[in-house]
# Entry
Amino acid sequence: MNVTLEQARCLDALARKQTFVEAGKELARTHTAVMYAVRGLEEQTGLRLLDRSGYRTRLTPEGERVLEHCRHLLDAEAALRHACTELRTGWEPEVRIVFDGVYPAEAILRAVGRLRAEGASTRFHISAEFLTGVEEVFARDRAQLMISLLPTRLEGLTSIPLPALPALLVAHRDHPLARRRGRLKVEALAGDLLLTVRGSDPRLELHTEPLEQRATVVLNDFSAKKSALLHGLGFGWMPTYLIETELQRKELKVLPLESGSTHVFQPRLHHRAESPLGRATQRIIEALTENGG
# Structure
């Protein structure tokens, strides 16, 4: 079977206009051209698509069913035409973004939301990883953009600093560490559970780094870590923006560590220097770097 788009268009127009003359006017064709196209479609399908017994031409039940499929073809053609137009104007077919889960996803989603609202047809793949996993997925999936906390080991990348993310060393207010008076030494924390998200890395230069290989609980993401902290399971570093409410309610308490209870993460946005940036990728970069993202 070799059904053409022209045949599909003629059947669709005839179904809506109900006469060959009116269908021809809509398609800028002669009514005989429309008749010929529909007759050819009947020959292709081996079905009687039209009821020609009345004043106005009507579709048979078989014709109605074939019309459904013809309209699917026309929809696919319209989608292809739109995609080609978008590609000619610089929109990429897809953009992959991998980011460290400590970075606020809302900033990325806002940027993507703006583009979707403008009608960009780019398909976005956004995934959260942690620490070394970010770079691994970026390389494996050939992603266009990467937001990482660790210095990259990949070559040929352009890196742009993003707004710093302060973090605090906290525990639940009822945790034994939170009840101690005076400033705490790192050694004093050794007997308690240090909560981490998928481990840690010396390149983060956390004040608790000497404890990383001792009694730790490794969690999948910061949502799980926050829940563990609120249940008094242990202590750990949390991005300030994720615990503002809990700090205000005094559910979580900052531990007065001698070497410092605050750490500043410095996320950086990376893309491949040799790869030309598409329109959507450029807009995402602009959105994340303008006014602090």
Remarks:
- The CA atoms of residues 7 and 38 lie 6 Å apart.
- The radius of gyration is 30 Å.
- DSSP finds ten helices and 13 strands in the chain.
- The domain at 165-265 is CATH 3.40.190.290 (D-Maltodextrin-Binding Protein; domain 2).
